[in-house]
Structures are given as structure tokens and as C-alpha cells.
What we know:
Blueprint: H1 24-44, H2 55-68, H3 70-102, H4 104-117, H5 126-133, H6 137-161, H7 165-173, H8 178-213, H9 221-230, H10 234-262
Helix pairs in contact: 2-10, 3-4, 3-6, 3-8, 3-9, 5-6, 6-8, 7-8, 8-10, 9-10
Amino acid sequence: MSHEQPAKKPVVFRGGGFAPRRIRWIGLAVFFVLIGLMEIGTQTGFITALTLPKPSDVFGTFVHLWESGLLWKHLLPSVTRLAVGATIGTIAGISLGISIGLFSYVRAGLVPLVAAIFPIPKIALLPLFVIWFGIDEGSKYALIALGTFTPTVVATYSAVDNVDRTLIRMGQSFGLSWRSIVLKIVLPGAMPGILSGLRVSLAIAIILLVAAEMLGAEYGVGAYILEAGSLYDLERLFAGVAILSVLGVGVSALVGLVETRLLGWRS
């Protein structure tokens, strides 16, 4: 008699239970539902016009900005200031953070200084920067750069510290040079933490951009919001806030592209 072996059931891999899945349409659905509720509330009078403008009116204001060309007059200076200031702060912050993470003397000398500067509200330094760099673009670049610099330094050297030391010892046991260990183990291992910190740093940079443009800027999203607020023009005010929101989403998407490019090895 032949004994048939029971069919083997495939073992389901359970390790992917915590892997995030990208479901894009849910975020868009939530956004449009909120906008729809706001529109219904303002149209029916449940939300007063003094509290919140109609989203349709805000959209009409945005369309007017686009057609009149004022959108680019305000947006391009803001993007330029953000790009220049954030680039300076990010490059300096990552460079110093890596140095702190790798060299004990640099850590001993500069970590107390960074810890002293980090909790200072950077907006409070804007008058000082105006004295040092003038009321033109220099003070705005300096404020955004400093605001981006300090959280980037902290995130970078923390990410370097969190690299698995077992991997470093393994590289040493295989005879890798110090340079190879840094380039092939330390930096790739620290990159997720560095990019996560960069998201926070760029969000802070946008906040400081608005603050800087509210002081002595003729054009810029911050100057546009300040003018709308002084006139209590809620449609223009919320249109400016929406522009900032879109700018933040764009910056986050840019960091996401960098993550996809540099962290493909994690998938």
C-alpha cells in the first residue's frame, strides 16, 4: 500500500506585518472630505464668515493670484530664500554632525555649544541678524540657515551614534580601512536618521522663512500673509497659508525622492 503524504501548506511569511504600505488615495480622500465639510459649514452658516472663509472663495483668490502673476512674484523669492538658506544650513549641519559622530575631540568641544544654541528661538535672533547682515536678503538667509543647521547637527550625530556597532566591528575584522568603514557602513547606516531629521529641519526652515519675510520684505509668501492679515482679508490669508502648505508638501516629496534614491537597499 502506498501512503500518500499530506499536502504541505505554504508557510506564510509574517515578517512583513510592520512594513508600511503606500496607499495614496486615502490621504487625498481625507483632504477633500475636510475641504467639503468646511465648504458645507460655511455655505450653511454653521461656520461664520468671520471665523473661516469659504474654501471656494479661497480657491478663487488663488486663481486670481495665478492669473495676475502675483503668485510667482511672491512664491519665487520665497523659494529662493528657502533654497539658499536651507542648503547652507543643511550642508553645514550634516558636515558638523558627521564630524561630531566620528571624532571624540570635535564632540567634546562642539556638543556643548550646539546644546546651548539649539533651544534658542531662532526668530528671536532676527533683529540681531538684521543688524549684522542688513535688512535685505542676507539676514533672511542667515536666519533660515541657522534654523536648519542646529536640528540637522543633532539629528546627524545621533544617527551616526545609532549605527550598529556590530557592523563596524565586522568591517574591522575583515580588514576594511577607516575610510571604507565610514563610507560603506557608517554613512549608509546613519542616512535614514539624517533624512528624518532633514524633514524636521526643512519644516522649521519654512516657519523661519515666513517670519523673516514679515520683516522688511516687499515680496514673499510671508509678506503676502502679513499684508492680508493686517487688512483682515481672510480669503487672501488662507490662500497664503495654502501656498505654504503646498510648499511644505513639495519639500517633503523632494526629501522622499532622496530617500528612495539613497535608501533603496532597505526594501
